[in-house]
Polysaccharide biosynthesis domain-containing protein (Acacia crassicarpa), 318 residues
Amino acid sequence: MKNTNNYTKLILLHPYIQKQGSSNRIWLLAFISFFTLAFLGTLIYTRESSSSITNVSKTSIVSSSSSPSPVSGLPVNVINTLLHYASKSNDTYHMPHSDLKPISDVLRKCSSPCNLLVFGLTHETLLWKALNQNGRTVFIDENRYYAAYYEELYPEIDAYDVQYTTKRSEMKELLASTKEQVTKECKPVQNLLFSECKLGLNDLPNHVYELSWDVILVDGPRGDWPDAPGRMAAIFTAGVLARSKKGGNPKTHVFVHDFGGEVEKLYGNEFLCKQNMVEESETLGHYVLERMDENSVQYCKNQSSSSSSSSSMASSSS
């Protein structure tokens, strides 16, 4: 009889072999997971870094754009072209290039947004609006129909009319009475909206008194005959607005056109002050006034000498 036990084969799978195979798979899975996590981490970090760089770039752009820059935003060659054609106009009363250039230079350097106030609607009205492209430009004129016509023709123009109560023939009397009221109604620092000073314009729109004007141009009203309003009130008002400004740059550039005129030179030196003059020609006076204390009672630092020189000028002109 054959012993079947001698031919029986028993195959056992040792537990170690099973564990070894499972362990290899676990290590492989762990290895893949590690690199997957590493890849995702690298991807997230790269995105965050690029986002940070983008944010920094945007911040730099915003910071640079918020810094003072030329208010007009126009290239220099465009500005020069506008000045050239404006000065070559066939209009009888156009400004020469020598007058346009100083005003343009100040507007170009004025920090944005620049506030420009202009007395008079003239041949250069559209030019001032264009040069002060990113700022606020307001025009004041004595002719309500002309102001309305201009606004209808050019809706972007911000123009208002004002009723002047002065006469050019009263130039000396108005000067004397204003100096007598320097500590009362005609103070150099005040809110003209509530003023009773004869030379103070108190019927302008409210925002004209609230805005801090960086540049003021006096190129109106008319003063060619005795009953014409003259520029006495405009020059006085410009001086008060400049000294009474609440915010922004403490300095205000005030230009007086037709500076060779008797009223323009006399009132300019009296209420804008000769020591504030930075440039003068036969047709343009350029003053720079600074904000003053509300308790001030003198228009000029050396008021006595200024007054005597103005009085002698007035006497010699009579």
Notes: The radius of gyration is 38 Å. Residues 7-21, 49-71, 305-318 have pLDDT under 50 and may be disordered. The chain has ten helices and seven strands.
